[in-house]
């Protein structure tokens, strides 16, 4: 009934859990309790509802409320038990031969307050520590197994972009075009869900925006927003009809077997104004510069500073990653199981790049009243710089 071909290998789970246990021991934390869905998938191979208890010294225990049978088919962990209620977690821990921990690590960056109070009562004599940063730093560096999936997602992103010229036409609405693009992505195996960690953030495939509507900002931490289908969404494609001689931005994520490829290309029905063509070429220059300097040891904030300096030198500072006071202060972000992973190539960030990190690099220019130009590709950090995963042509595609 369940397809095990895409299951996370047991060796991968063992390595991930081993790294986390090493950190727990280094910081005198006796155990971790993993609840967040993406972290649960990362460490157990299943995102079924439950909790994963990882003692610093001992074997993990996966407790599943729904669905236990499916979790056993999806996860290669040795100990998987049914969980009738979170109230039973302390009893299950003790039944497996463990004392309740004096210190317990949890993902306090995303744990809802009411749920925290519930676990506070369950572990009354336990000091609960925040291990969210540790988990996010660990997840930032991808294994060869993860990189293999992400490279495949990058190839599928290219195929989606290749499909766009076949269906782009004047008079079609952004929403209708988005539906046709998304249908092709689904045909290729897109999982449909694009997960984000930041509270209140959400993403449906990405942003397909055209002309002036593409320059409309939104609440999302992104250089682009779009008017969206209604104020209830307030981002992404709208009922605006696509016209000739305006940029059409397809900024879409391909999500495959949990992992993401973030990918932007610009299309147009007929020629664009020279100002937009020049701006796009400038962003390709920024991308190329960053690919060369983004080597292990450089800080993520330094990369942003150099990108901003280059755009200032070229005369595009007022349009870089937004317009006016609506600009965001980053030029790229980590990518993996979630859209917003570490590291952030943002102002003031001191996080040093490491081999194996994956970054969505997205230098863009926003021209109010005209539209958006620029590029985005997902990359992996190597000793020689950034290795790009998407290969579809980067110049503006004139249809």
Description:
- The chain is of the alpha+beta class and 399 residues long.
- The chain folds into 2 domains: 10-139, Creatinase/prolidase N-terminal domain (Creatine Amidinohydrolase, Chain A, domain 1, 3-Layer(aba) Sandwich); 141-398, Creatine Amidinohydrolase, CATH 3.90.230.10.
- It is built from 10 helices and 17 strands.
- β15 (377-382) and β16 form a beta hairpin.
- α9 (274-293) runs antiparallel to α10 (300-314).
- It starts with 9 loop residues before the first helix and ends with a strand.
- 46% of the residues are buried.
CATH topology of the largest domain: Creatine Amidinohydrolase
Return residue spans where pLDDT drops below 50 for at least 5 consecutive residues: none
Helix count, per DSSP? 10
Mean pLDDT: 97
Radius of gyration: 22 Å
């Amino acid at each position: 009934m369940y397809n095990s071909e895409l299951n996370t290998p047991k060796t991968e789970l063992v390595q991930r859990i081993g790294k986390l246990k090493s950190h727990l021991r280094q910081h005198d934390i006796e155990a971790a309790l993993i609840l967040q869905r993406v972290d649960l998938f990362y460490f157990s191979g299943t995102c079924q509802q439950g909790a994963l208890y990882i003692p610093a010294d001992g074997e993990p225990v996966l407790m599943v409320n729904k669905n236990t049978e499916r979790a056993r088919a999806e996860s290669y962990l040795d100990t998987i038990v049914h969980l009738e209620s979170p109230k039973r977690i302390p009893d299950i821990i003790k039944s497996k031969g463990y004392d309740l921990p004096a210190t317990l690590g949890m993902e306090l960056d995303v744990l809802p307050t009411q749920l925290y109070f519930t676990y506070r009562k369950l572990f009354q004599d336990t000091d609960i520590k925040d291990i969210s940063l540790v988990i996010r730093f660990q997840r930032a560096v991808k294994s060869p197994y993860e990189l293999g999936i992400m490279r495949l997602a990058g190839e599928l992103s290219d195929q989606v972009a290749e499909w766009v010229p076949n269906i782009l036409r004047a008079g079609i609405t952004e929403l209708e075009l988005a539906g046709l693009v998304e249908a092709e992505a689904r045909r290729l195996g897109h999982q449909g869900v694009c997960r984000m960690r930041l509270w209140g953030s959400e993403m449906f495939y990405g942003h397909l925006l055209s002309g002036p509507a593409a320059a409309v900002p939104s609440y999302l931490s992104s250089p682009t927003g779009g008017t969206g289908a209604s104020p209830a969404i307030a981002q992404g494609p709208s009922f605006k009809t696509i016209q000739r001689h305006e940029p059409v931005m397809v900024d879409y994520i391909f999500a495959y077997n949990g992992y993401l490829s973030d990918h932007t290309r610009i299309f147009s029905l007929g020629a664009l104004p020279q100002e937009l063509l020049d701006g796009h070429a400038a962003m390709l220059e920024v991308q190329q510069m960053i690919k060369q300097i983004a080597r292990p040891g450089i800080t993520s904030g330094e990369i942003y500073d150099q990108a901003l300096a280059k755009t200032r030198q070229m005369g595009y500072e007022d349009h870089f990653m937004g317009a006016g006071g609506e600009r965001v202060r980053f030029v790229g972000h980590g990518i993996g199981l979630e859209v917003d992973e570490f590291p952030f190539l943002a102002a003031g960030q001191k996080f040093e790049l490491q081999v194996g990190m994956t970054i969505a690099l997205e230098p863009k220019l926003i021209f109010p009243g005209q539209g958006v130009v620029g590029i985005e590709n997902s990359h992996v950090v190597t000793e020689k710089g950034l290795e790009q995963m998407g290969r579809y042509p980067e110049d503006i595609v004139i249809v």
